[in-house]
Amino acid sequence: MIEAKGVCLEYPDGTKAIKNIELSVKPGELVYITGPSGSGKTSLLKLFMGEEYPTAGSLRVLGQHISRGQASRIRGLRRMIGPVFQDFRLIKGRTALENVMLGMRFLDIPSGCIRENAGNALKKVGLEQKMLSLVEHLSWGECQRVAIARAVSREPVLIIADEPTGNLDKDNALNILELLKSFRNDNKAIIITTHATHLIEDERYAVHIRMDNGNMLKERSGEA
Amino acid sequence: MKNILYNTGYFIKETKTIMRLNLLSSILSFLSIGLIFFILAMMISGWWVSSHVVLAIQEEAEISIYFSEDMDAAGAERLAEEIENIEGVYEARLVSEEEAYSRMEKILGKEARVLEYLDDNPFSPFIEAKIQIEDIGLIPGKLDLIEGIEHVRDNREVLERILGISQTIKILGYLIIAAVGISTTVIISHIIRMGIYDCREQINTLRLMGAPEAFIGFPFMLEGLLLTLGGGALSSALAAYALKYLYAQAAGPIAFIPLPPREALVSDLTILIMLLSTALGTAGSFFGLSSAKN
Hints:
The complex is a heterodimer.
Chain A: E1 2-10, E2 16-25, E3 30-34, H1 41-48, E4 56-61, E5 64-65, H2 71-79, E6 81-84, H3 96-102, H4 111-124, H5 140-153, E7 158-162, H6 170-181, E8 189-194, E9 207-212, E10 215-220
Parallel strand pairs in A: 3-8, 3-9, 6-7, 7-8
Antiparallel strand pairs in A: 1-2, 1-4, 4-5, 9-10
Helix pairs in contact in A: 3-4, 3-5, 4-5
Chain B: H1 2-6, H2 8-21, H3 23-60, E1 62-67, H4 73-84, E2 89-95, H5 97-108, E3 126-131, H6 139-144, E4 149-153, H7 156-198, H8 200-208, H9 213-251, H10 262-291
Helix pairs in contact in B: 2-3, 2-9, 3-7, 3-9, 3-10, 7-9, 7-10, 9-10
């Protein structure tokens, strides 16, 4: 699903965000990327999403080479990804249902199915009762769930969640992680970044990647 | 395209939201566009009315050609035929002394009895030629080359002045159309850029989820189109009202001017303004979207 060979990312101001990353993610894998703030976790996800381009090395995501000048292909790639953004990026002034539906509107899905998929996704994340609430009236945790529902309702082959446990207490953070893991299957890989390593220490069936200062320090393969 | 059809309801709702976010700008843009189109509508009306009047006068544009007294009737007929062959003359006919006399009687009306004091018919036969008004400067020169012609009488000054006014209105019309086109495009582009700026986070999120640019831009296109169509409709209504008032004012003092029918003028004007507003709204939206793409 993801093949990174010697990938580097250097921003125009000279900051080296990612340094010589070698990585492979296969279908069905659950990958945790951990590390302190500024270690390069979000930059790595931006590379996977085609939001940034490698300044050196080669990166392929879902068969698509990530490089400049591939706008339409990267757009196609993004449609196969379910992103859960760190700041949710929910659209204000819209209900939870409308936000989830918006993520599907340009995926060639008939309107009737869009509503049904969105409703089902919100049920799965436990927001059945809040479907018609405006997102600005929802709590932080509920917004997180809406963002997850929006990501999974698109039936992506790769879910990328950037710090989904940030600002949540331990119980809620564990609930969110469990929820995300529940969408994993043989064909679907999940990549989660978090700095809360204590929450995932016991995860045996996952790939653990530790980042620090743009370097990949450690990769521990899961047992699954 | 399929996406756009599936999402018609969503696009309409989005357009409403975008306009609501920029409510004051939207209202001011709508009024400005309405005013600009109103100026254009009045200019076009003036252009059409003057063209109509000029055309009516052109149809009546004629010159009188007097020939030597010793020329017989057959010679005068041949001369008339020769004149008719000149470029810019589309009809030439011989007016006899008697016809000239009876025309004067009609013109004088009750005062025609003054003619009875004359022993003989004082009028000479002449050739009356209907001409293309644009060629009025060339025809006298060509007539000078024909033998037997003594004198040519034309109302050249009047005709040239009318033609000049008509051409000035036409040039002004072109200038105003260009000015309206540019200002409407700029206003619409600007309001769309503002809309895009206000919705930049949403646009960025949609891009990160793989939404095509057409899907993202369609509500903004719709906003531009709605604003110009609204402005066009407002200006058409104002122009219809203004023309009604102006026609009523013109009915008394200048009733002799052959104005075109008001209903036809208003309906043609409305169609033109709505077509123009659609075209300019699309162009403005397109420029706004292109300039704010990144």
